[in-house]
Please model this.
Amino acid sequence: MPDDTTDKPGQDHIADDDEFAEDDEFAEDDEATGTKMPFMAHLEELRTRLVRSFYGLIIGFVICYIFKEQIYLFLTHPLQASANEGLELVYLDPTEAFFTYIKVAFLASLVLTSPWLFFQLWRFIAPGLYQKERRLAWPFVLSSSALFIGGAIFCFTLVFPYAFQFLRSFETRHQPALQQADQRSGIVEVVRKEVAAQLKAQGGEAALRDISADQRGQVARRIEQRVLDRVIQLLMREKRKPGTLQIKAQFTMRNYLSFVSTLLLAFGVIFETPLVLVFLGRLGVVTSRGLRRKRKYAILIMFVVAAIFTPPDVVTQVLMAVPLVGLFEISIWLVAASEKKRAEQEEQWDREAET
Model:
């Protein structure tokens, strides 16, 4: 009769300090002892995983900080695409630019080292799993990283363009007065008349030919100054016209990064939905039948979450809610497949126990 204590959850190892020296990372821990991992060992294991995750983040941070300006410029591409003219970001505090770049490097490091972080998470929860389940380490790491990064890419390429287009639609798109002279103030015609009048006052073009080059230069500067004074008067008069309030978007470095990072992280996390639900299904916390029964409530919650994290327009809310619904349906199918496989394994164990 096989020994039932060799393949049960919670009967495993105290982590080896040199995890890369193990021939089989999960199969050859301390299963032969059949002893449960004590509480203090769990705390020690948690400390080890947190320290190694921190080291990975620090290394990624140093690498990303070297390219901080290029990363921030890349993050501004959706905003630049929504601008009809040059884009200008400002910082209102002497230290704002520095700390914004620090945050940029940290967020980029979080994405860059996400496979390492998910691997450390798996190593922490692995002792409570069956031996065969522990062999799913790399599929777990790769799938979780791919889902997180995929969610961020989906947000960056599809959601941001619509979001910024909507948010900048509140600007009053007035061009500078000199660019609208022909339509609004007739400034161009005024300038021509003023130049002609000043030339006539100086004796006309024929009189200018008879004076020296230095004198012609002085006359040209006087004409230029008088024309500019006239143009400024017209512009100031136009500026004082009622009903010409201009509303222009002016983003700071900190606020823009906060907005972008919140949405990127939100989409990255919600794309982990299938993985989380499958894991909960393996633990027996949720079932495919229960998920189907609560589907309508889940869809309502998804649209509420989308309304919270996205700008207040329908397009971006739908762009977040629809993928959530799709991921939820995929999760139901994966949980059902996991339950079927689990039932088959339990039948096999029962047959082995009877023999």
